[in-house]
Amino acid sequence: MLIAFVFVWVLYGTLSNGYYDYYFYPRVKEGYIYPEWRYFFYDLGTIVWGVVGILASSLLLRSAILRLDVCGWTRRSVVAFFSIFAVLLFLGIVVGPLLRSAGLV
Length: 105
Hints:
- The protein has helices at 2-28, 37-66, 73-102.
- The protein contains 3 helices and no strands.
- The radius of gyration is 17 Å and the shape is flat.
- The chain has one domain.
């Protein structure tokens, strides 16, 4: 259940940051410049990853309480969670610096 609390905290931070960056500041500040597209897509991926993490931890907790096998939607959500995590790491570590060095972002 600790994992779910961490994901709620990550989602809260990402969503509040997105609210200020994409909604509040453009309406309040004159000449506000939106963040780069890479930050938008990373925030979007983090939101999806957080929602899947909360779903996976909730389903795992349910399976543990009811003493069920980890199968079906529980297994799919855990696999999706780790897959999205791997994609975010790959994009952040490998693709991001390559695009930046090429001057594309």
